[in-house]
Amino acid sequence: MTLLDTEAAAGTDPAPSRRGGAWRRLLADRSALAALVLVGLLALAALAAPLLTALEGQDPTTFHSRLLDSARGGVPRGALGGISGDHWLGVEPGTGRDVFARVVHGARVSLGVALAATVLELVIGIAIGLAAGLGGRRLDAVLGRVIEIAIAFPSLLLALALMAIVPQSVPRPVLVALAITAVNWGNIARVTRAQAMSLRSREYVDAARLAGARPLRIALREILPGLATPLMVLAALKVPNNIVNEAGLSFLGAGVRPPTPSWGQMLSTSTTWFQTDPAYVIIPGGLLLVTLLAFSLFADGVRRALDPRSVRV
Amino acid sequence: MRLRPFVLLGSALLAATSAVAGCGGGSGSGGGAASDVASDAAFDAKTCQGGTLTVLNQGGLGKFDPATLYTSGGGALPSLVYRTLTTRQRVPGQDGTKPVPDLATDLGTPGDNARTWKYTLRDGLKFEDGTPITSKDVKYGIERSFAPELPGGAPYLHDWLVDGTGYQGPYKGADLKSIETPDDRTIVFKLRAPHGDFPYLATATQFSPVPKARDTGVKYQNAPVSSGPYKVEKYEVGKRLVLVRNTSWSRAVDDQRLACPDRIEITAGLDATVIDQRLSSGSGADAKAITTDTSVGPEQLARVGGDPNLAKRVARGVFGETKYLAFDTTKKPFDDIRVRQAVAYAVNRQSVINAIGGSELASPATTFLPDGKAFGQQPYDYFPAGETGNPAKAKELLAQAGYGNGLTVDLAYPNVDTDGIGPKVAPAVQDALKQAGITVKPKPFSDDDYRNVTGKPSTQPALSLQTWGADWPAGGPFLTPVFDGRQILTGGGNYNLAQLNDPAVNKEIDRINTITDAAQAAPRWGALDATIGKQALVVPLFHPKTVALFGKDVKNAYVDEWRGWYDVSSVSVK
């Protein structure tokens, strides 16, 4: 998802919403509902990871050397990457660690980091966007440039550099979330700024100002509610974006550290096995695909529900 | 004294240091490496000449000066351009672990209880420009390797030669008094202590001649003067090396190198999987391609095993190396031998081996010396962990040592897998020790820092993953740096991580160093290893193996047992 897509999807037309109807519309949207169920299941699986693995009778770090064919480079014995009653999604080549356990524990890292980064991006983006949009010409000129630089900066490079300079003692998932936030708050700030600028001349805002409300109160009580719709859509699109970012960083070896599992890391180690153990590539790759699809469909549904004019276009 | 482990052309060739051991005289016995000689009825050494050989490598072209290269047995590619006083014997089988004369007429005449070594050069030796090679050129080549501007070579001579310490190379005007050249064909080395292994050391590229008149210092590697069958046509540092025939060389003055291809084009900087793919598909020029640094990866092994056409094009060998867990026996809790034994019982060698690619790429190690007669290995397994570990026995020992409720330790390792002791192996060790109630906290270090941290006793972690490889196939360069008490270097560069200083061990090392017959020295090294092993100072994990593919038109790619790889000077593409 490129930046432009994201912003286009978020819409630029402020539509102070009627949220009761929106929820009903969302539930009536079949693809969005399916996506919501899927996202819910994934989140539940991530939350209940220790429970699920206990149910399976496995854990994500124990090696099973006997399940591997040592003479063939350590590929799992048996079909489909060693899928069996004991190991629901097979075992990892080279180590024999349980793939199901790693996938659900990896979901905690992947989804957790993505959600945390999204929340942080919203907080920073909204704060800076509101300040730029409402703070006057000079502040806007400065913050506008800052936002532009943040957006224009090659994000992956910046994230990699951040991961490299921060001391090893900082917990990696926190660090990954911060690195993703640092390079992704820019477009939230831009959308917020644009919306705030168009809302600030509305009559109800003028009314509040004439009634003597302070700028902070105007920003939070009058402008922010008007931003809810585009920002909710943007946030829903940000989550899958951030899942990809986490996977990308882990894939490049700058994400969470082994033996902590994450989807990006699983993908990274699996790519070289595509010829001899395709199941090991397909499982984390497929999961990532399904998750992204679900989040994107859901975000789409949110947009349609909140902005009835775009329904059935 | 400097100790630098060095990865050359894919094999970790580890530096040993000073008082390294005896063997010699040229009667070294063979290594017991696995070998598959490619059966090749069509190959005939008489008519093998012609064609262009392509070499696809990951690295190894960062330097090409004979003074700065760190090689075992002269190396794969350097040995095509630089002839040395002695060299490894180019034959299949165990005899390949013996040194043979190269520029010299024999393996050297020891004198004064192996404290002096005298060599006589062959007749008819010429540089690529036709000027004769003299013993002074050999001396000059060695002197260059002492220059601080040209670092990187094997450190042995600095310690072995009488006036080696402190010598700053020929550019400062001084020469080495301990190397005498009474005439143009004779060269005599004077050593501080007996070193029966000298003929093995004389295979290093530092023992190749350099004509003083054409020495350009650090720029010499761009246009080195060849003494071997090929000369450098083009050299781009780190990327590409093109070798063409040296017409001043002939098989009449060299009985080791067949030098079949007319032209050899070496490319470095390729990805391991790309090399695997190109060699296995073998299209175009890749049909006449080899690699000298990339073993088939674990991911491709199943495919190689399943395809009879590929299986034919594989050379399987062993380079003498041991990957192991090292304890600092002066630090808690490893000052207690029962804790060290517990770790030795707990390790799961099967899972460690699977982690680095399975039984085709490694064999379990219970001895510090690698397999093979050349090393004199005496099999022992004092703390039998079986294939997958014996956590029950480990727990028992820990309880005796007062750790009945478990134990938490840090495990240091480099954060890359190039040496086979990185992020793949560490979790396997961690998991095995967990079964025995030992909680392992992983402590990864950047590859550059790792040797600095573990090599200094003040910063050395109590438990770390280590690797040791042979500079030549003998027990001396394996045991001396790691277990000689006089080699504990407090300032850095230390490899005696156990901090073992046992007078009996030191004395036996000195005694073996005076033996010039490798066949006699080898069992003594083996016995010494078996004695030291009882103290559980290290936990050997595995000995790596190589599986090297070669293109479908490549012939005579037998495994050279010294290096565990096919020999470039023997292969043919015609």
Structural commentary:
Chain A: InterPro entries: BP-dependent_transpt_permease (IPR050366), MetI-like (IPR000515), MetI-like_sf (IPR035906), OppC_N (IPR025966). Chain A: It holds the Pfam family OppC_N. Chain A: The chain crosses the membrane at residues 33-55, 109-134, 146-166, 172-192, 279-299. The complex is a heterodimer of chains A (313) and B (574). With 313 residues, chain A is mainly alpha-helical. Chain A has one domain: MetI-like (MetI-like fold). Chain A has 13 helices and 2 strands; from the N terminus they run ααααββααααααααα. In chain A, a hairpin with a 5-residue loop joins strand 1 (68-69) and strand 2 (75-76). The model of chain A is unreliable at 1-6 and 8-17 (pLDDT under 50). With 574 residues, chain B is of the alpha+beta class. Chain B has helices at 78-81, 135-144, 156-160, 198-201, 272-281, 298-306, 308-311, 337-346, 349-355, 391-400, 425-435, 447-454, 476-483, 503-513, 518-533, and strands at residues 6-8, 11-13, 52-56, 86-88, 99-101, 109-111, 116-120, 179-180, 186-190, 230-236, 240-245, 263-267, 289-290, 314-317, 321-327, 362-364, 407-414, 438-445, 463-469, 538-544, 546-549, 559-560, 565-566. A 5-stranded mixed beta sheet of chain B has the order 10-11-12-3-13, with no helix packed on it. In chain B, strands 6-7-9-8 form a 4-stranded antiparallel beta sheet. The interface between A and B is medium-sized, with 25 and 32 residues.
